[in-house]
Amino acid sequence: MKYAFVLPGGSALEQLEQAVLAEQAGWDGIFVWEAAYGVDAWSLLAAICVRTAGIQVGTLLTPLPWRRPWKVASQVATVDQLSGGRAILSVGIGALGTDLPETGEPTDVRERAEMLDEGIDLIRTLWSGGTSYEGSHYHYEGGSRPDLIAAVGPARRSVPIWVVGVWPRPKSMRRAARCDGVIPQYQLADGREADPEDARAVRRWLDGHGASHVDLIAEGETPADDAVEAARRVDLWREAGATWWIENRWSLPELDATGIRVVTERLEAGPPRA
Questions:
Q1: Which residue from 65, 96, 66, 61 is spatially nearest to 76, judged by alpha carbons?
Q2: pLDDT tens across the length of the chain (274 residues)
Q3: Integer angstrom CA distances of residue 11 from 17, 51, 82, 196
Q4: What's the predicted TM-score (pTM) here?
Q5: Do residues 175 and 181 touch, judged by C-beta distance below 8 A?
Q6: DSSP E strand stretches across the chain
């Protein structure tokens, strides 16, 4: 299992310093969130990559239907080049909430799901050297500049794409099975919070549908002051088949000085390894 931290916010400089601290403390990955308005995720990740040497970097997550896929493909490939092949792209249809900006982008679930599928396909087409794409929502013609196509290629053959998979919806999970990682969004009939047994069910589904290679992401909070308890909690998810643990602090009411200190203290304590 690998261990990462998703930064809940703060200024660009605060998040940059926290990312540097994360690598020093032994975390395997650092993620930033991407919203309609706020600190630009890919500019921040570019800065993180040139200040770090080995930690993986990415978004958690990019609302792809509200972005131009060719622009995202360019940004991710640039970060992958600068980092020497350490980028991860996490995508979803985008969250709606009263605390988030409204920008006039599509909000219909079916439309956004279609745009997500096409966006993933278009990005992969560009990364593989393709110059054209025709879909219901996107039309792309790359022009005749081979130097531009070559310049924007990722450092690797392709950057891993993680996608939100609504469990147990078959269509959403089939999308996840054709990506490199799944971030489960559990819809449980009894209204309870997801536990490792739910992750085990997702892993069984992936294995049964030819997607054993797909990373299974688990996330949550563990204590900074009890390494044994933190490792015990996360190990239950590892045993269930999760391959990444993403530490978060979404429970913080706001990112004031106190919130920044809470995040920093958890980063300094290091990942919850057994």
A1: 61
A2: 999 999 999 999 999 999 999 999 999 999 999 988 889 999 999 999 999 999 999 999 999 999 999 999 999 999 999 999 999 999 999 988 766 777 888 999 999 999 999 999 999 999 998 989 999 999 999 877 877 777 888 888 789 999 999 999 999 999 999 999 999 999 988 878 999 999 999 999 999 999 999 999 999 999 999 999 999 999 999 999 999 999 999 999 888 899 999 999 999 999 999 8
A3: 10, 16, 22, 34
A4: 0.95
A5: no
A6: 2-7, 29-32, 56-59, 62-63, 87-92, 132-134, 139-141, 161-167, 181-186, 215-220, 244-247
